[in-house]
Amino acid sequence: MASEVPPFTLDAPRYDQSTYYGRWKHFSDLVALSSFFVSDKQIDASKELIDNYKNGVLPKGSVTDAQLWDARRICECVFHPQTGEKLPMLFRMPAFVPVNIPICSGMVLAPPTLFNTIFWQWVNQSYNAGFNYANRNASGVDDTTAIAKAYASAVLISCGASVGLGKAVEHATFLGATARLALSRTVPFVAVAAAGAGNAVFMRLKELTEGIDVIDNEGVARGRSQNAGKQSLTQVAMTRVALPMPILLFPPFILEGLKKVNAMPKNRVGRVIAEVSVVTLCIWGAFPAAIALFPQYGTIAAKDLEPQFQQLTNSKGQLVKEFTYNKGI
After folding, report:
1. Residue 3 DSSP code
2. Measured distance CA(166)–CA(186) in Å, rounded
3. Transmembrane ranges (predicted)?
């Protein structure tokens, strides 16, 4: 039975963002394939529909709530929530899973040679850097030098950790062959988790040093807070650690289990299809599950902000006790 469509609004998401399930539903909609294959015509029509709704020029009963929610979903996938700029197609949320299928397949399935290890870690962090930048909190002014340093740092961390840990496991002769094999399968995850958190923090370091915009209960930006920036980046870093866990840890063990029960195809093409399918399912399940850990629009109590935010009042003279901020993805 189809779920009931709630009355449309621009003031709140369709699903309750105070619950994990509501956030998971929200992000699952945004990463769906239907969100990826949207044409420029659909994007323009959706933006026009939302603009008309904002301006109050939609004739009553001319469109349904379902159509308005769908238009809002498309706009949220395509346009940055702060700048309103159209995001590059490969850095939109619906592109994350399709783009990561070959990348994660390479990290998990390619023979662990020195070239393969460095190449796939570099490709992964290059894409992560672009995705993090496109979906950043856009309160501050971009610094090209800082962005380049952040990218280089993330690549060095991932490649260094991957190669270093791989060599360490390889030379851990005091461990049995089974233990070394199990540990070697965790190396891509550890490297990607460390670099992913570092990549996000380095790429968005200005949110920590200069702060991010905090919004009061009337939707008015009241200044920039370093404390809010710290909370936001901490949540982003935790997400980047959680995200690769099921993607890079589960497939090797799932595939090993399939081999033990003779469920893997015998021919090479069939094995490749099965391996990539397992990786794909893990990515598709992991992405919305990880980014739903925290709301995209976070909240922070006034008492946890700098002193200048703790006695602010709104237009009605009421003390603002809580602020919101755009965490980004």
Report:
1. P
2. 9
3. 237-255, 276-297
3-state SS assignment for residue 215? strand
What element of type H or E holds 191? helix 177-203
What CA–CA distance (Å, rounded) separates 73 from 68? 9
Kindly report, residue by residue over 149-179, the tens digit of the pLDDT: 777 877 787 777 777 777 776 777 777 777 7
Q: Which residues of 218-231 are buried (b: 16+ CB within 10 A; e: fewer)?
A: eeeebbbbeebbbb
* Cα-Cα-Cα-Cα dihedral sign, residues 172, 174, 177, 180: negative
pTM score, whole prediction = 0.72
* Interval 99-127: pLDDT, tens: 988 888 887 778 878 888 889 888 888 88
Residues in the chain, overall count: 329
Rounded distance between C-alpha atoms, residue 132 and residue 278, angstroms: 26
Reduce the secondary structure of 84-142 to three states and give it as a string.
Answer: CCECCHHHCHHHHHHHHHHHHHHHHHCCCCHHHHHHHHHHHHHHHHHHHHHCCCCCCCC
Please count the other Cβ atoms lying within 10 Å of the Cβ belonging to residue 105: 19
Structural tokens at position 111? 């023979």
Which helix H or strand E contains 281, and what residues bound it?
helix 268-291
